[in-house]
Design goal:
Chains A, B, C, D: It comes from Phialocephala subalpina. Four copies of one chain form a homotetramer. The first copy, chain A, is an alpha/beta fold. In chain A, 36% of the residues lie in helices and 27% in strands. β13 of chain C pairs antiparallel with β12 of chain D, so a sheet runs across the interface.
Chain lengths: 355, 355, 355, 355
């Protein structure tokens, strides 16, 4: 008896869309990529060269693509501003959805997707946070679960991108939701993963600077920012995000427990090569997050496919993606206003610190 | 126009055979796995569960498998003793061949495969040395080619396996050809890659011990051995192979040039996690070579497939596999007899050192 | 012509006092330790065994010790509460002073020492911040000065002590001034060193927890705390201090500039040994700050001695010690009250963030 | 009661002589440096500036120095060719001796010193092998002694110097005894320390090249050499020595046991600084052995002083220094002749391998 494959289409063939398409086409054995949508001519050209020969049909209209006969699932990797709308359309067509993060930079809009999905609980709707699929983060999680470090109490996590002097990030800042929502959302998600998804925020403070990309100021964004999120129950997470790294991508997380510490990627490296020359011993660092998380993205495509086909549980809830954006938006407010935010034990905003 | 895929069959579904089958089935988009052969009942059972559902036909007779209509290529991963015979049969059927290393533990038999392939030069016949497909070794090679370390002059390379108290290696030693032929053949191949494939051996010396697996003695094998291979032209390679590592697999290579040094895997690690507890800071190590080289094996399957389909050049010559076994057999002789071997500038054996 | 040595006495023979005495006696060739004071009987016994045989006179009265004929300098390592009084007495006797940090946990009292010293500017009065004498921090500073990392913009620095289940820190918390004043004062000093001593604080926020030493609560202290200090001019420092490390002392500093980053002690290690066993690869970490900074303390004793004898410049100003305590006290207030503090461009307290 | 100090004089004020003089003067509290001898005018000038002001008397005649009233000990750091003669003279004057390695490059002459010392067993005569005093090697030894790695079976050890294009080593090669005697003697000593001082050599093989310093050929020396020393009882040591490192000094040792491995200095580093720039993450390496072993030399001076004064045991026997030179000379012969050397179980030379 032949196995059945998941018929899936991809929306968006930009930087991440191309990667998702290739992963579903060639690195997800139980998936069959049947369609791809993009309104962009150069992306279409890429699709004609790289997808059509494998039998993938191309579309310039998202709604048309959803009409593919037998289509079961959609992977959404278009610009963030249309994620929610496309996700809801797919859900309403009874299709499984894998949506690039974030659902939206707006908490309200993100919530609308979560609610649409809640109505069709048989669908597998996931907003991918790649680190949840990364072998190292999973190993850290298993070690924490085993009790090796006692009770996780402090989390330090950073998302630091290689400086791109080309100005890409300035343009991008128009829609990104700000550095904490765009970058630290991964770190926030990790904090919730290790502290518990039901952790309640007690206070939030943040500071940022514009050091290398003055154009960010017009969009109210920063190229470096630090934030502290305190949770009820004696747990503190602190975050650093930066777009100023000279050496490459450096995403590092420390989970500090009462009896030990776990560090993920404390020593970033592109591969296993060290070069010994007159300047000393040197190693290279991945230039971007895909260099660090390629295998996590492939794993994500495979696990989501399996969940769609077999009805198995996804490793993270859709509501978690909403929650991370929510806390990210607190950090954005704290950063933008310079104020410290306080919350009561139901996470309602209050005026003063509860000591 | 749909792309054509390479119709390929796998011989052997043991430890590596299973992996090759999965790579060709699920991680090599331009390959189509159409058949698999194994005489072993438990391996067949695995094939029925994992390959048949994807349309792969199973065989208990190698010759029958070669008759699959439209078959273009065979991947051979049976026991070493039948590699050569199966490879030659496939070549004679005009099929491309990817053969697990070594072609044979016998230099003469290895040579017969090289000669069979030479007569059908349109075929892509490759004996896979996984490290040639590893991203780190390739990066090291590019850096060496760029002149970064001057002229490669000394190579230190080791293949060290985690100690297996279960006795697997003792059984295996009956047919393995000895530790240098079985393990160091990778390191020898690397030495040739960095020093030049045409390097001429000048002298060979070796010493070994049996420290943890006394059963090896009955097969004339060792669980730890060190060897020096001196080449004409001022180049020396030295090797260590061991089956005694407590911590896991540790394959390390240093290429030492007149102006710098490259080290590959000087700090083995299973992933990016460090654990900080009362004993200090700890990291884990891959337990076996597949943990270190998984992606290299997948890369190998893909590049071989591309070469078969498009006629492109393979990254290594079949004769290189013969050459590595040949030098491995010198080391075995030096180890077994305790004698140092000498060669003249045409690599003919001589009695005394040429100074 | 024989060289003249600096006649110096030590006040206090506790944990650090013993070390200072030994450094001045045996590892500072231009110093001559002539006296030591302690009111503590067990410390006196140690002095009789370890100092008297080398000709060092012991005192149970600090004032008596200051009357030693020809005395030129005093090293103060008594409990923090008497640092300032003893330092001022020595200054008034026209003696050079090396005082353990901090001058006082009170900004006002610290300032009184700075003022006493200012009146006798020929005296070398130093409050030792050991990291300023550490070879690695100095190398980092030289690299930063060379322009290698552009303009220092973000500093992350932590002082993390090995967890002492014996309760020492709980007792100590009565007088320590709180975790930021006691521990992070080093990190604050480093921030000022790299950002410029004249940097003006713009805002301060902090959060802390009591995770392993509940006794700290009665003293209003925390065993883990995180703080952000924002400076005018686009500079942010963030700090972590902890007394909960399972593995040992971990003091790490990152100086992140517009064109690169410097990390000091990103990979703590007790020595150059790695152990490879069935759990993986392990290295040990120094159990306390002296294990990390021993040589810095010796360097400090030597440089201070040279400055006293030759009138050369000290590597740090006394006012810097006051400044670090001042910023530490901001962090303590932010931590204790849960409030974020704001300052105008003259560092006067204001009610709201200046954006 | 004042302590008594060891009255000691230094012979030779060259590179190491200066260091020994400073260690004994300023970093060895129980030693009193009373004299220094050198026939060299520029060294004398250094002594006048750096030793005389501290009361050290200078001599241009070694014998005159030995007549210093009350002299108890001599530290010999002259050129290797006079070590033995000076040591014997001092022994005959009933003085303790700390002699720089080697006693002599000749086994016979080395033996004469050992014999002279044997006649006066109350004297502390030591030939310093600095690694025996290094905190990391001692930690490794303690861990090995604790049984952590089972039975030490394979040792890999290397002494690799930074390439000095100035030609110093070519001149030095006239008297150095060859690269194995000059450099690997440390590694040989370590092998004996971990395998047991009474280990019997079974066979020796070696290969070398001249890659960057062609002038070495006229002295029969090599700038890179690899050697294997097999001992009876299932123990193999292999060595690499090089004067070609671009990055700095790299002395690394692995002790591989039946149940684990210890590595010393697998990741050389000058200090705790890492630099992150566009080329990646870089750390510097000590440029020479003193950068790596400074504290070991100071430790050596202190322990020898203590042994002289208190009659305590030295951490290594004088005969060990002879033994290391002896095995070094086997390696030199194997290197020079290209032949493999064989020994019977009493370490007498035989013609053929004993299997």
């Amino acid at each position: 008896m032949a196995i059945s494959k998941l018929k899936v289409a991809v929306a968006g063939l930009g930087r991440m869309g191309k990667r998702h398409a290739v992963h579903l086409l060639a690195r997800t054995p139980r998936a069959e990529l049947v369609g791809a949508f993009t309104p962009d001519e150069s992306e279409l050209a890429w699709g004609r060269a790289n997808l059509e020969p494998f039998g993938v049909k191309l579309f310039t209209d998202y709604d048309e693509m959803l009409k593919i006969e037998g289509l079961q699932a959609v992977c959404i990797a278009t610009v963030t501003t249309v994620h929610a709308e496309e996700a809801i359309k797919a859900i309403e067509k009874d299709l499984h959805v894998l949506c690039e993060k974030p659902l939206s930079t707006s908490v309200e809009i993100s919530r609308s997707v979560v609610e649409a999905a809640r109505k069709r609980s048989h669908l597998k709707v996931m907003c991918g946070f790649s680190r949840r699929f990364d072998a190292s983060y999973r190993d850290a999680r298993e070690k924490a679960d085993s009790g090796m470090i006692g009770r996780p109490s402090i989390i330090r996590s950073q998302t630091c991108d290689k400086h791109d002097p080309g100005g890409f990030f300035v343009e991008y800042a128009k829609f990104s939701g700000g550095c904490f929502v765009d970058m630290s959302v991964h770190d926030i998600d990790l904090a919730l993963w290790f502290f518990g998804e039901d952790s309640i925020v007690k206070s939030v403070a943040a500071s940022g600077i514009v050091a290398v990309a003055p154009g960010l100021k017009q969009h109210g964004d920063y190229d470096n920012a630090v934030g502290i999120v305190e949770f009820y129950g004696g747990k503190v997470a602190y975050f650093f995000c930066s777009r100023m790294m000279a050496h490459g991508q450096e995403d590092t997380t420390e989970i500090i427990g009462t009896e030990g510490k776990l560090a993920v990627n404390a020593n970033p490296q592109a591969n296993f090569v060290n070069t010994y020359t007159s300047t000393g011993i040197n190693r290279e660092v991945p230039p971007h997050y895909y260099g660090r998380f390629e295998h996590a993205f492939v794993q994500e495509a495979n696990e989501w496919t399996t969940a769609c086909l077999d009805g198995t549980k996804l490793p993270m809830k859709l509501s978690g993606a909403l929650r991370a954006v929510e806390i990210g938006s607190y950090l954005q407010e704290a950063l933008r206003t310079g104020r410290k935010l306080y919350f009561d034990e139901t996470e309602r905003r209050v005026e003063h610190a509860s000591l």
